[in-house]
Amino acid sequence: MATPADARITPRAEDYPQWYQDVVREADLAEPAKVVKGCMVIKPHGYAIWEKIQRELDSQFRATGHRNAYFPLLVPQSFLQKEAEHVEGFAPELAVVTHAGGQPLEEPYVIRPTSETIIGHFFSKWISSYRDLPLLLNQWANVMRWELRTRLFLRTTEFLWQEGHTAHATHDEAMEEVLRILHVYGDFAESFMAMPVVRGRKTALEKFAGALESYCIEAHMQDGKALQAGTSHDLGQNFGKAFDVRFQNEAGDLDYVWQTSWGVSTRLIGGLVMTHADDDGLVLPPRLAPIHCVIVPIYRNDEQKAQVLEAAERLRKALCDVDLSSPDARYRDFLEVVLDDRDLRPGAKFYHWERRGVPLRIELGPKDLAKGQVCTKFRVDTPVQSGKAFVPTDEFLATVRDKLLAFQDALLERARAAQAADTVVLDDWDDFVASFSGEKSVFAWCHWDGTSETEAAIKEATKVTIRCIPLPGQGPDDGPGRCIRTGRPSAGRVLMAKAY
């Protein structure tokens, strides 16, 4: 079928960044908001994915005792200046409001780049005793960070996210929260996004401005680069001291609270694209697909059309009763099914839904009705099913849930295999440089001497950063060694890669 020239998806091997932009465009996920520098319009299909991400994560946050709140978009500029490292880290990205109502403001406001400061201000009003702790809040919001180079979903001036903020009586309790949320993110990425991740701790150069420590999940993209897909921060008492958030402990003494913050954003949609999409367009795991199945009726005349559409509608209704959720889920996840009865040729419909990543296509024609069967095809070939299959209708309805979940698992295994193929263990500097030549990247496990000076030198020489110091069980555990750059002693290997 002929397609417009601008509908072509550039092959990944030809131009990976352009391939990404083409897939986002052809899947109708988003487009640049050219009248607002660096921002994007998230279109209905893209926003529906974000809504599914929200629904699942919000359910998990509530299950761990968190409640949703909302804080102002505008933050007094003086608030950011109270925590020196924090304001220094965000200063280049701030958008500042200096006038309102036709008059200059007495104090400028910053459009929130994150909310630790203003939430710290209100924590100081709400917390006075150990009985007020822990305070576990989450906010679904938009933020603004003035980016010079933008890319849809991955890095835009304005983006959507959730940011959790909690206050605790002890550092141990705060650290328990940091790691709990890190694993919520990691489990979500693997179970719902079918995107394998490495869990670990950031270096001092890469940690969140104002935090004691930052933890992250790092995902492998098809070009070998890493995507920081979620972060969880141990803020220590830094913001408690900056905003005088004190409480009376059980011994009757005054102490500063221990705080955490954590978040994921619409960048996850970019990660979803770069983990699973191919040169034909988007590929969506069923647990995050806004549309799980599309039924394409096939007929030659009006009589066949009436018969096929009647049967297709019965099939659609039956599929809509299929629930993908697990027995202990806090919500039901019934299949979203589209019956595509548009006046278009079947090939045009196949093309349309393939571009949008719908996991399962069902074809239904007169011959299928006569045989009591359906023709099915998954978006990509996996061990679950390769190519088209003809299945008795009753059998199809009885097995479609299991097959969609098996397809979800197969996408995760496919992504794990791609990550493994791009993962190397390196001990020689020349091999390291060769592995990251040009735009190429790999997931490299290397020894590092633990100094920021060496970390900065590696980045300057190769554009490679230390993505994380792995948690136990997340990387090679072969003990101490020698730094790949300096030869000095190293406590263990860290994950290095080029990153988005």
List the helices and strands and how they pair.
Blueprint: H1 16-26, E1 30-32, E2 40-42, H2 44-63, E3 67-68, E4 74-76, H3 77-81, H4 84-90, E5 96-100, E6 103-111, H5 116-126, E7 135-144, E8 158-168, H6 171-191, E9 197-201, E10 213-220, E11 226-236, H7 238-242, E12 246-248, E13 254-256, E14 258-265, H8 267-276, E15 293-297, H9 302-319, E16 337-339, H10 346-355, E17 360-364, H11 366-371, E18 373-378, E19 389-392, H12 393-421, E20 423-425, H13 429-435, E21 443-447, H14 452-462, E22 465-470, E23 481-482, E24 489-490, E25 493-497
Parallel strand pairs: 3-7, 15-16, 15-17, 20-21
Antiparallel strand pairs: 1-2, 4-6, 5-6, 7-8, 8-14, 9-10, 9-22, 10-11, 11-14, 12-13, 17-18, 18-19, 21-25, 22-25, 23-24
Helix pairs in contact: 2-6
Summarize the structure in words.
This protein has 500 residues and is of the alpha+beta class. The chain folds into 3 domains: 15-276, BirA Bifunctional Protein, domain 2 (2-Layer Sandwich), CATH 3.30.930.10; 291-406, 3-Layer(aba) Sandwich (Rossmann fold), CATH 3.40.50.800; 423-497, Translation Initiation Factor IF3 (2-Layer Sandwich), CATH 3.30.110.30. It contains 14 helices and 25 strands. It has an 11-stranded mixed beta sheet with strand order 3-7-8-14-11-10-9-22-25-21-20, sandwiched between helices. Strands 16-15-17-18-19 form a 5-stranded mixed beta sheet, sandwiched between helices. A hairpin with a 7-residue loop joins β1 (30-32) and β2. α2 packs across α6. The longest helix is centred in the C-terminal third of the chain and has 29 residues, at 393-421. It is globular, with a radius of gyration of 25 Å. The model has no long low-confidence stretch (mean pLDDT 96).
